[in-house]
Amino acid sequence: MNIREEAIRMRMAAPAMAACSIEKRNLALRLIAEKLEASKDDIFAANALDMEAAKEKGIPQAVQKRLKYDEGKLRDSIAGLNGLAELEDPVGKVTLKRELDEGLILQRVSVPIGVIGVIFEARPDAMIQVASLCIKSGNCAILKGGKETANSNRVLFGLIKECAIKAGLPEGCLVQAELHNEIDELLKCDSEVDLLIPRGSNAFVRHIMENTKIPVMGHSSGICHIYVDSVFDREMAVNTIIDAKIQYPAACNAVETLLVKRDIAGDFLPVMARAFIGAGVSVKGNAEVNRILSANGIVPGGEMADDEFAKEYNDMAVSVKLVEDVKEAVDHINRFGSHHTDSIITDDAEAEKYFTSMVDSAGVYVNCSTRFADGYRYGFGAEVGISTGKLHARGPVGLDGLVTYKYVLKGNGHIVGDYASGKKQFRHKDL
Amino acid sequence: MNIREEAIRMRMAAPAMAACSIEKRNLALRLIAEKLEASKDDIFAANALDMEAAKEKGIPQAVQKRLKYDEGKLRDSIAGLNGLAELEDPVGKVTLKRELDEGLILQRVSVPIGVIGVIFEARPDAMIQVASLCIKSGNCAILKGGKETANSNRVLFGLIKECAIKAGLPEGCLVQAELHNEIDELLKCDSEVDLLIPRGSNAFVRHIMENTKIPVMGHSSGICHIYVDSVFDREMAVNTIIDAKIQYPAACNAVETLLVKRDIAGDFLPVMARAFIGAGVSVKGNAEVNRILSANGIVPGGEMADDEFAKEYNDMAVSVKLVEDVKEAVDHINRFGSHHTDSIITDDAEAEKYFTSMVDSAGVYVNCSTRFADGYRYGFGAEVGISTGKLHARGPVGLDGLVTYKYVLKGNGHIVGDYASGKKQFRHKDL
């Protein structure tokens, strides 16, 4: 397939896709849900081929779990599609309506972004989720899933596209890329593609960000912090931190660095370290931390130099450092963090306020686990990714992040000359 | 000055600037307004040096008018500053408040973007406007004005910075770049600068867009169209089109291409062309248009080949082409336009609907001049630029475009494990 030709065709189809009624878009989602049920034997057969290949290649068990598409995941996909069809239309919302002057009405109306390229990890449910978010938001999409689920993706994409066309969406609204070199072609389509959303490893996302002029939404790293300012409830503090580390260590919103206020470290650090070690987490402190651990008979899992704290483990390990106060904690986070999600444990209102206003991250949390940074948990229905950039969309990105707006101005022969000459004056009255 | 060092310092100052109260930010604006009045002799003296140099260099009269800063422009600047101080705070707005579960409250709060670089044309009032928009929105700013007003800029920047500090804003909140090579340094500061806003010639803006990894907001070209679908009021149609062309031909929102429905061209085109020529506008049709003009005794100002329509004159000239219907007009605009602002003249509701929904531009207008695309005319107080990109901000960009948001989540020891295990369920109740 020639990606540029497909992208050019899609660019031309995008206005028609954007103009499709919400009834057609929701119908497509419901048809996909029905078709998933009706085609489940084909889907499971294709997935079995992917699973066999994964076993042959010796892909780790934990990853194989992600590749697997079974009855349970099918239920979730169908529930997700029907739930998405119930959600309010993100397109056509009037977010500003203003009378500029008599008979001259300005409206700001939400519209789809246009053509979006999404490159996502090998997970059959991701194909369904990404495609359905793009359909609901009226966007054309070029979809490239991970190669380890190539067979599953092909079957799923085929039925998704079939249902989209059956619902009356334009022919060119969805395209699947299957080859890795097609990603490189896609990166060059900056005249045709409005937005790229890459998901996957840090190195992969960084590669995309550095090799395209297309705007990119996503995150390369997730270096999340928890700063313990006061241990007003020791069990709560320990539980929250353990959850943030071990509930899903490979996730971008898992905590990587624990900062502890120096004046509570002597009491809190040994308890926390024992909890970590008991949960199978390796504790890597700087020299100061390790001295306290050793004095309490705890063997550190390694030693961090003070400039090594921009470290994302994605694994059962955590960096630990002491800071003088919330100010030093914030400086550390803003310097070493990735502007993803950072949490403070405190019952001090001043420290909480300082932390939430000064930490420059998409998520700033108080007394809870960083693992809540997720579109589903935020109540967005689903997410297309998490953005650590500051423009357009920040944090978990749901349907809202897949639309932009246009200004529609309607007059009756209004000319600027009349206002420049003083013959007429603007009213600027919000309606 | 070492721009990178300044940018690093600014990056560290940005959270403190973002946390400054609206009282301090408004005080800064009011102090600047007072100081402008008190320092007007110094400002006019500096501006006189710039004007002398401009005359010596033989800079055209029209451009000299832009460089000039006089009593009238001072009044406008002071009124603009006091008006901006009256506007609602764009920072700290809660745009979503949701109970995820008992005691776990999510808020989405607007926050400044952080560090913004603005490179703007030689106009002393632009320095004041850009700096004041950045102050009001709580952003740190690196400002680089056109070199032709270097003396005026230096005096103005000096007093703006002095007033900002006096109002209690952080020392590093504003920096002025004065040398052209500092722009190249600035383009490399992608770890420090969150957003660049370049204003000026197409070639200059394109150069910025192509040579930095920093997100860029703005527009390189403004190829605006008017499509005449039905001439239900000939005088209105002609007046509107003439205004769009001649009211300020050098502006990005001036019309560059007129599209006329073929079945009305025989009647309308000669009238329109005579109006253009009477106003001093050169009419450049394609072969079909020029045949009609010639048959009516009108001499065309040139001939356009059918692939030459991506043409921005910024001058007293207009391209003209016939189309079969609104569909062909929209296809032409989406292909040759720059997604800036396009207008239809019609009394047909179907054509209007098709045009406004299918034209993929920041502004889609009905029966009015394209020249309305402007932050002041939209009632935004002022604008920092006009964006033809689709992400973050589109069209005229005022204070709203200078903020982003963060998610603040406050709990009481909430952990994700409880929801993953089914022990607890999310409520997702909007408050």
Description:
The structure is a homodimer of 431-residue chains. With 431 residues, chain A is of the alpha/beta class. Chain A has 2 domains: 3-218 and 389-407, Aldehyde Dehydrogenase, Chain A, domain 1 (3-Layer(aba) Sandwich); 224-372, Aldehyde Dehydrogenase, Chain A, domain 2 (3-Layer(aba) Sandwich). Helices cover 43% and strands 21% of the residues of chain A. In chain A, a hairpin with a 2-residue loop joins strand 1 (94-101) and strand 2. In chain A, helix 2 crosses helix 7, helix 5 runs parallel beside helix 6 (124-136) and helix 13 packs parallel to helix 14 (349-358). The model of chain A has no long low-confidence stretch (mean pLDDT 95). Chains A and B meet through helix 1, helix 10, helix 13, helix 14 and strand 13 of A and helix 1, helix 10, helix 13, helix 14 and strand 13 of B. Strand 13 (363-368) of chain A pairs parallel with strand 16 of chain B, so a sheet runs across the interface.
Secondary structure: number of strands of chain A: 17
Q: If you consult CATH, what is the topology of the largest domain in chain A?
A: Aldehyde Dehydrogenase, Chain A, domain 1
Oligomer: homodimer
> How many angstroms does the end-to-end distance of chain A come to?
50 Å
Largest interface: A-B, 76 and 76 residues
Residue fraction in strands of chain A: 15-25%
